[in-house]
Structures are given as structure tokens and as C-alpha cells.
């Protein structure tokens, strides 16, 4: 919930990200103290990914492009007065900018590897030595 509010309305209240970070630090510290004093250590389990949360955060980041641009262009006259645009043209500009941002993000994601080459080689070497034993 907090990530969504901060991401979707960052342009409306930029201080929200700072306060959310402070809140998270206090919450982590209080949870740590509660876990240390009131319960035993949880049994760790190895997970491959964060599962459905990745898709939810990905959707929120995509939606935040649109909402922040719409809030900026709807509440300020900066873009319209600078480029002498009407309301309809400014919304078309928002759509264009949003599409360009999504295209740049897609190009970046497709151009970068999720796992670095050195780690892939180390994993292959470990797998090979494990199979020899």
C-alpha cells in the first residue's frame, strides 16, 4: 500500500518518499526488537523470487508513469504555457511522453541481463564439480 501511494502520487507530494523511508526504518527497528524479545528465530527458507509481489510492483511502476504525468500536466500550466498547448494537446503530449518512457524502460530491461556472466560461470563450475563428486 505504501509503495503504491508514494509511487502513484510522488509528483503531488515529493516529501512523501522521505517520510515513507523514515517510517520504514522505524518499523523495521520496532519489528526487530519485538522479534528479538518476544519470539524465537524463524526458520529461514530459500526462495527463488518474490513471486507475485514482483508483478504487483511492476504494475505500480508502470501506472505511476501515467498518474504522475497526468497530475503534473493537469494541475500545472507549465507545459501548456511553454508549448502553447490546449488541454487536448497536453493530454496527447502526456500519452506520447508516457509511451516514450515505457519504450526506454523496455529497451533497458531487454538490454540488461538478470544474472551477471561471472555468476553464471561460477554456478556452472560449481555444478560441474558437484557432478564429479
TrEMBL record:
Location of the Anoctamin transmembrane domain: 2-125
UniProt-listed InterPro entries: Anoctamin (IPR007632), Anoctamin_TM (IPR049452)
Cell location: Membrane
Gene Ontology terms for molecular function: chloride channel activity
Membrane topology per record: Multi-pass membrane protein
A Pfam family that the UniProt record links to this protein: Anoctamin
Keyword Transmembrane helix annotated: yes
Keywords, ordered alphabetically: Membrane, Transmembrane, Transmembrane helix
Cellular component GO terms held in the UniProt record: cortical endoplasmic reticulum; membrane
Transmembrane stretches, start-end: 6-26, 47-73, 85-104
PANTHER family named among the record's database cross-references: ANOCTAMIN
Protein's recorded name: Anoctamin transmembrane domain-containing protein
Organism: Rhodosorus marinus
